């Protein structure tokens, strides 16, 4: 008999809520482990402080001598907080975070030692980069990689290590990480948006993209999770029969948070406070043992770092509470999966949210300009936006009728639809004074009022306007937000540049007034981008048909979707904006395709192993018990045994059929994998994994799950769904 499942179940009873003390107010804890503005004032010389602030605000370079001062101050602060080591903290293209710790400790001869951390060590390091994915960049250029300090994201202490957020680039300049293109995209949207803002307010000097992510996750008892090889190796269950009760009663969503989970959350939030991650909201999600955590939004680069850091912290704190956090988009079949809504907006240094309707007709025209340009950007780049969220794990979620479909569309609500309808009819060419007054009074001027009633929030939309921001809902829960944020900010930057050029052309060539030119360009945008607007049910089949008619893409799988990243149009756009050159774009495509293949390959191997080595032997064992039983009945009852053994004989046959089903499908899957592995072209290989290997998972699973229902519970080796999902 398998003991791991039963051992884990027994252990669960010893897992009590961990006591968590919260004696200090959160506002006081907030940022205590961050080298933030107030700490810098305390530990840095005036010159060093100003130099960092300039680097953050204006992107200016930090002088090497000043860097020495900064590192000294940083070290003093870190040591005072109990830190012993420092690390450059970066996000290689695995999507996870990477760190290599070095001690401050250094020997100075004569058996003496000091604590040392120089400007050089702060500014640049050379981790051995050969084991990180590089998509051929480093082979092409035979260059090593280095990490370089990103002063726009403050250093922090985690545990006893000073972590310095850095970019990771090849010596030839190509980005080997997610952060570098993000910073470049943020720079691009900043300058493009500032130029457009000048039409409305000459004082705008900087535009920041903001991001507020909402992280969904499952919390599973660690022992139970560890008893499942599929969870350990792939982050999700590859088999398991649905429990009699799932989420149909809706009794978990927004319900009372279970005690153990609550203790975990409080502990986690305390750590977040120390690290300056402004988490604010926590609640139960739809599926059993599923939860959500959301912060107050921040500048996008910092928010991306904070989300990556949060995911690390969540894992670490979970150990203390005997939990395992599942970030996978679809850890359990039959109940909801997890996403990571990316709430996004643009705001100026003058404190204006450009996607929030204002109080005057002028500020509303500014709002409409950014609003309509965003819609146009999404329309022109819908396939690229779909590619931004493509991964093997998110494929389970998109279009699975619980999350937005793989079709990108924009929801704006009834009221704004009306506004756009009116704007679509403005005169072609110069507007009459009467028309302008009318527009200002009755259309543009009315927006703040109408938005107040715009409470309808279509949950099936992948990209929804929610009053003062867009919510990109199709992002997966495991995603590094840098990827979707780079693409979204880049396409909006490109769009704003085009917009300005078109307005300028009308002003200079057609002698139009600024307002007239803006109305004219917006009118055309509204007309052309109409197909992307959709207010209906995104889960329905009718939408799939309608979207096809409208010419929208519906790339259901990652290998199909990713191609948009290397389309001529995308490569050119990223290159023109300075976000990624051709090599960098192609490298990311290759890495993501490769990752897709590897994930499916691993899942196939794990499933094959569990099915053959865990499920089949268990089924045979149970079948043998039945056979013994039948033999016994025959011995006692002679020829009339058949009547008494009818059910057992049926079961014996059914079990044999399922065993056959498993074995033949596993054999088929292994053959398909071998076939795929021999294919040279990455694209073709990914396609075989997607279309030949993966579908067999369902067939294998079907037979395993049937056996789970037939075999004696006491023999079943794999912790069951009801145990994983309902153990609190
Ligand atoms: P929900 O979408 O769950 O109803 P909210 O609309 O209150 O919740 O906000 C969800 C998330 O949106 C939060 O993380 C919040 O910080 C973020 N958010 C709010 N305003 C903005 C903004 N201007 N830019 C980016 N994110 C924002
Ligand atoms: Mg939301």
From TrEMBL:
Pfam families linked: Gln-synt_C, Gln-synt_C-ter, GSIII_N
Domain (GS catalytic) ranges: 178-615
The GS beta-grasp domain, residue ranges: 84-173
SMART domains the record matches: Gln-synt_C (SM01230)
Gene3D superfamilies recorded: 1.20.120.1560, Glutamine synthetase/guanido kinase, catalytic domain
Family: Belongs to the glutamine synthetase family.
PANTHER family: GLUTAMINE SYNTHETASE, TYPE-3 GLUTAMINE SYNTHETASE
Protein name from the UniProt record: Glutamine synthetase III
Organism (species): Psychroserpens algicola
Record lineage: Bacteria, Pseudomonadati, Bacteroidota, Flavobacteriia, Flavobacteriales
């Amino acid at each position: 008999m398998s003991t791991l499942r039963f051992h884990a179940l027994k252990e669960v009873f010893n897992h009590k809520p961990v006591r968590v003390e919260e004696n200090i107010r959160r506002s006081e804890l907030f940022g205590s482990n961050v080298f933030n503005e107030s700490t810098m004032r305390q530990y840095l010389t005036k010159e060093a402080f100003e130099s960092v602030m300039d680097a953050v605000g204006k992107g200016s370079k930090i002088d090497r001598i000043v860097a020495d001062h900064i590192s000294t101050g940083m070290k003093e602060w870190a040591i005072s907080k109990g830190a012993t080591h420092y690390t450059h903290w970066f996000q290689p293209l695995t999507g996870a975070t990477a760190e290599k710790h070095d001690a401050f400790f250094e020997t100075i001869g004569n058996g003496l030692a000091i604590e040392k951390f120089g400007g050089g060590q702060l500014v640049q390091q050379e981790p051995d980069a050969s084991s990180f994915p590089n998509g051929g960049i480093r082979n092409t250029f035979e260059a090593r990689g280095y990490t370089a300090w990103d002063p726009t994201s403050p250093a922090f202490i985690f545990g006893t290590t000073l972590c310095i957020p850095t970019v990771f680039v090849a010596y030839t300049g190509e980005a080997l990480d997610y952060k570098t293109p993000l910073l470049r995209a943020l720079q691009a949207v900043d300058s493009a948006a500032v130029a457009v803002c000048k039409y409305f307010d000459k004082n705008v000097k900087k535009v920041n993209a903001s991001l507020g992510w909402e992280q969904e996750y499952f919390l599973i008892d660690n022992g139970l999770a560890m008893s499942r090889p599929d969870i350990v190796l792939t982050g999700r269950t590859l088999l398991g029969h649905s429990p009699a009760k799932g989420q149909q009663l809706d009794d978990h969503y927004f319900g009372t948070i279970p005690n153990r989970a609550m203790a975990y959350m409080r502990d986690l939030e305390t750590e977040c406070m120390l690290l300056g991650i402004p988490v604010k909201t926590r609640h139960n999600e739809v599926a059993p043992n599923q939860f959500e955590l959301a912060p107050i939004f921040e500048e996008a680069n910092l928010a991306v770092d904070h989300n990556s850091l949060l995911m690390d912290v969540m894992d670490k704190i979970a150990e203390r509470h005997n939990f395992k956090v599942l970030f996978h988009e679809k850890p359990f079949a039959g109940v909801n999966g997890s996403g990571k809504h990316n709430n996004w907006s643009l705001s100026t240094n003058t404190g204006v949210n450009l996607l929030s309707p204002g109080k005057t007709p002028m500020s509303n025209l500014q709002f409409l300009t950014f609003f309509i340009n965003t819609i146009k950007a999404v329309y022109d780049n819908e396939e690229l936006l779909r590619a931004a969220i493509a991964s093997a794990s998110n494929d389970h979620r998109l279009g699975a009728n619980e999350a937005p479909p793989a079709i990108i569309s924009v929801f704006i609500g009834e009221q704004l639809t009306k506004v756009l309808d009116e704007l679509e009819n403005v005169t072609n060419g110069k507007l009459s004074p009467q028309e302008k007054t009318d527009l200002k009074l009755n259309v543009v001027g009315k927006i703040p009022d109408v938005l107040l009633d715009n409470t309808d929030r279509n949950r099936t939309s992948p990209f929804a306007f929610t009053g003062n921001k867009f919510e990109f809902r199709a992002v997966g829960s495991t995603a590094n937000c840098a990827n979707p944020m780079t693409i979204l900010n880049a396409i909006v930057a490109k769009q704003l540049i085009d917009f300005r050029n078109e307005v300028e052309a009308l002003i200079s060539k057609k002698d139009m007034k600024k307002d007239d030119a803006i109305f004219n360009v917006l009118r055309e945008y509204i007309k052309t981008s109409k197909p992307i607007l959709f207010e209906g049910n995104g889960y329905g089949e009718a939408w799939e048909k309608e979207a096809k008619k409208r010419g929208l893409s519906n790339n259901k799988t990652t290998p199909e979707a990713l191609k948009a990243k290397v389309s001529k149009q995308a490569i050119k756009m990223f290159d023109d904006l300075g976000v990624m050159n051709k090599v960098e774009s192609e490298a990311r495509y290759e890495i993501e395709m490769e990752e897709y293949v590897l994930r499916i390959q691993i899942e196939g191997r794990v499933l094959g192993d569990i099915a053959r080595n865990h499920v089949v032997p268990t089924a045979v064992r149970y079948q043998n018990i039945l056979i013994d039983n039948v033999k016994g009945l025959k011995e006692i009852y002679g020829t009339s045994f058949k009547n008494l053994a009818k059910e057992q004989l049926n079961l014996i046959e059914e079990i044999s059929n399922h065993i056959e089903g498993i074995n033949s499908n596993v054999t088929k899957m292994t053959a398909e994998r071998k076939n795929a592995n021999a294919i040279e072209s990455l694209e073709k290989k990914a396609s075989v994994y997607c279309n030949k290997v993966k579908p067999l998972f369902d067939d294998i699973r079907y037979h395993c799950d049937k056996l789970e229902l037939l075999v004696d519970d006491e023999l079943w080796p794999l912790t069951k769904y009801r145990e994983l999902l309902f153990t609190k």
